[in-house]
């Protein structure tokens, strides 16, 4: 319970403070909206006063002077018009501020996601991030439009009604005033009971989005393996867990919000009527006073009911804001260049010196890896799955920080290079290429703003992708669907090669880049790769040893260590692990 109280306090204070900070650039608009809100509240409160005057001064005595009645009616209508216009205007202003805040928050969250480390994405489902950027920020918008603004409006209205009540009857107004601590206690109890449920519901919603995202991404495999029923069952289970959390929320709302306030209202109404009844035994009670007080009593409980009903939205929004701010406060950022220097990569000389690495800090993945790739050389990394090949590439690309040792490019430690220089001079081609929504030309020049149309077409010809591009309806301006689903894996990989070559990097990193390409396409691209490697340092990971036989150096990895090194022929003559792998692949190829 202590933890719960501490959490509620943190959310209630810290999160609200940060949200208010986002609204501070629009403080003039907020101040104007609040001013209009106060005006609308005053005119709203004055309405029953005019009705009391009409009942006691004119209706009770059956006197209806035309001028007075018309003036009273016009005044009442003007007050109602000011109230309606003021409420409309302040709502528009608050909505405008909320939209600016949500726009800023979403951009900040998305920008933060772009700067997070690869390790963060390894442990965080994509659907969960999507839920935070969309659903949670939408809940924060509801906080401004459906919670904070009504809280202010109804809070000011409650104060105005209390003042009017005191003008009519001090004793009864004191009774209503004493109800305020009761309502505050109910609100505090509601927050304590509901915060766990709201957090659980938000967590279940993230799981729901993650499950949906995973299913949509793997739809081909799901249908190929006939796993539709299992995935439906899995999704239904997650959806049911979310439903149960929402049901618990509904039960708390049903118990703690309007029903409880209605009971207090009817009890107070009985007390007020009894008070006037006993008072009428000893003195005359004006009908207008009874009407005005009962009207104010109803109006007093109306904003209280509104506030209690909006507690649900407020609590959900605070929990959502807490989740968004936790993401904004995430410290697992991608490595960036250190120091004020701006070294340049001009030759592509790569050195690994006693480099060790572990993803979790416990289980070593690489141990004392050392090798030297001279400018223009090609080094191939081979080994069984899990031997550490891709980890070497991840460290060179600075996706992860190495534990010990040092990596140098052109004699400069890797960490001293600025991101722009490192990413522009290291060209990475992965096994699974990624294409983005846009044109063919946009994807080839992706991340290379200085690449013009001539360079785009040259890069496509260089990797021999221009024949299939020429057959497209709009050639290089052909629009790519999501993830390039309309292209074959080989075509997507050719475009990925063209994108890499267009940047003219000094170092090429090929992570099983030809694994998804058919034999005919591979033969064509190998010719292009040989031309591309001239004058460039190349580090290639390959499972098919036939693709790296001309490498200047082959490193054989096993359990995170380099166990053999040499040229293709030297390793065959050695008769070690590489020789066994070669015979195994050759035997498989012959049997095939």
From TrEMBL:
<dbReference type="InterPro" id="IPR003593">
    <property type="entry name" value="AAA+_ATPase"/>
</dbReference>
<feature type="domain" description="ABC transporter">
    <location>
        <begin position="350"/>
        <end position="584"/>
    </location>
</feature>
<dbReference type="InterPro" id="IPR011527">
    <property type="entry name" value="ABC1_TM_dom"/>
</dbReference>
<keyword id="KW-0812">Transmembrane</keyword>
<feature type="transmembrane region" description="Helical">
    <location>
        <begin position="29"/>
        <end position="51"/>
    </location>
</feature>
<dbReference type="GO" id="GO:0005524">
    <property type="term" value="F:ATP binding"/>
</dbReference>
<feature type="transmembrane region" description="Helical">
    <location>
        <begin position="263"/>
        <end position="294"/>
    </location>
</feature>
<keyword id="KW-0067">ATP-binding</keyword>
<protein>
    <submittedName>
        <fullName>ABC transporter ATP-binding protein/permease</fullName>
    </submittedName>
</protein>
<keyword id="KW-0472">Membrane</keyword>
<keyword id="KW-1133">Transmembrane helix</keyword>
<dbReference type="Pfam" id="PF00664">
    <property type="entry name" value="ABC_membrane"/>
</dbReference>
<feature type="domain" description="ABC transmembrane type-1">
    <location>
        <begin position="31"/>
        <end position="316"/>
    </location>
</feature>
<dbReference type="InterPro" id="IPR017871">
    <property type="entry name" value="ABC_transporter-like_CS"/>
</dbReference>
<dbReference type="InterPro" id="IPR036640">
    <property type="entry name" value="ABC1_TM_sf"/>
</dbReference>
<dbReference type="InterPro" id="IPR039421">
    <property type="entry name" value="Type_1_exporter"/>
</dbReference>
<dbReference type="InterPro" id="IPR003439">
    <property type="entry name" value="ABC_transporter-like_ATP-bd"/>
</dbReference>
<dbReference type="Pfam" id="PF00005">
    <property type="entry name" value="ABC_tran"/>
</dbReference>
<keyword id="KW-0547">Nucleotide-binding</keyword>
<dbReference type="InterPro" id="IPR027417">
    <property type="entry name" value="P-loop_NTPase"/>
</dbReference>
<feature type="transmembrane region" description="Helical">
    <location>
        <begin position="156"/>
        <end position="186"/>
    </location>
</feature>
């Amino acid at each position: 319970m202590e933890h719960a109280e501490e959490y509620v306090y943190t959310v209630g204070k810290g999160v609200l403070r940060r949200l208010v900070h986002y609204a501070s650039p629009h403080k003039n608009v907020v101040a104007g909206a609040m001013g209009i809100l106060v005006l609308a509240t005053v005119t709203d409160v004055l309405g029953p006063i005019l009705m009391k005057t009409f009942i006691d001064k004119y209706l009770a005595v059956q006197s209806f002077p035309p001028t007075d009645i018309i003036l009273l009616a016009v005044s009442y209508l003007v007050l109602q018009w000011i109230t309606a216009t003021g409420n409309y205007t302040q709502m528009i202003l608050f909505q405008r501020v909320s939209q600016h805040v949500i726009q800023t928050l979403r951009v900040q969250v998305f920008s933060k996601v772009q700067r997070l480390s690869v390790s963060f994405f390894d442990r965080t489902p994509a659907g969960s991030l999507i839920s935070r950027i969309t659903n949670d920020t939408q809940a924060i918008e509801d906080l401004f439009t459906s919670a904070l603004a009504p809280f202010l409006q109804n809070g000011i209205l409650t104060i105005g009604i209390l003042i009017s009540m005191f003008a009519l009857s001090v004793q009864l107004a004191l009774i209503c005033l004493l109800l305020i601590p009761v309502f505050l206690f109910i609100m505090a109890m509601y927050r304590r009971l509901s915060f766990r449920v709201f957090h659980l519901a938000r967590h279940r919603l993230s799981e729901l989005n993650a499950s949906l995202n995973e299913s949509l991404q793997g739809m081909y495999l799901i249908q190929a393996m006939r796993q539709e029923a299992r995935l439906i069952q899995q999704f239904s289970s997650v959806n049911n867990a979310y439903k149960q959390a929402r049901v618990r929320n509904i039960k708390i709302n049903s118990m703690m919000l309007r029903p409880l306030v209605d009971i207090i209202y009817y009890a107070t109404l009985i007390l007020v009527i009894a008070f006037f009844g006993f008072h009428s035994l000893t003195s005359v009670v004006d009908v207008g006073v009874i009407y005005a007080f009962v009207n104010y009593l109803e109006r007093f409980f109306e904003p209280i009911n509104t506030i209690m009903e909006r507690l649900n939205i407020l609590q959900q929004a605070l929990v959502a804001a807490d989740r968004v701010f936790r993401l904004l406060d995430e410290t697992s950022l991608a490595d960036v260049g250190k120091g004020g220097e701006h070294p340049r990569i001009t030759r592509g000389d790569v050195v690994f010196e006693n480099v060790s690495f572990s993803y979790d800090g416990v289980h070593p993945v690489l141990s004392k890896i050392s090798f030297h790739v001279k400018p223009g050389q090609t080094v191939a990394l081979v080994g069984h799955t899990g031997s550490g090949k891709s980890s070497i590439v991840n460290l060179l690309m600075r996706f992860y920080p190495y534990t010990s040792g040092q990596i140098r490019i052109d004699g400069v430690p890797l960490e001293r290079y600025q991101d722009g220089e490192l990413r522009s001079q290291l060209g990475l081609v992965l096994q699974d290429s990624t294409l983005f929504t846009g044109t063919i030309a946009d994807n080839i020049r992706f991340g290379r703003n200085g690449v013009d149309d001539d360079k785009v077409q040259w890069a496509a010809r260089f990797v021999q992708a221009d024949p299939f591009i020429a057959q497209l309806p709009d050639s290089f301006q052909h629009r790519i669907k999501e993830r390039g689903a309309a292209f074959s894996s080989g075509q997507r990989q050719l475009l990925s090669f063209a994108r890499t070559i267009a940047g003219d990097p000094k170092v090429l990193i090929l992570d099983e880049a030809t694994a998804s390409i058919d034999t005919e396409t591979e033969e064509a691209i190998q010719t292009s790769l040989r031309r591309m490697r001239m004058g460039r340092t190349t580090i290639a990971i390959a499972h098919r040893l036939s693709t790296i036989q001309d490498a200047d150096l082959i490193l054989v990895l096993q359990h995170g260590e380099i166990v053999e090194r040499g040229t293709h022929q030297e390793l065959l003559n050695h008769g070690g692990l590489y020789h066994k792998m070669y015979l195994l692949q050759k035997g498989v190829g012959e049997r095939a």
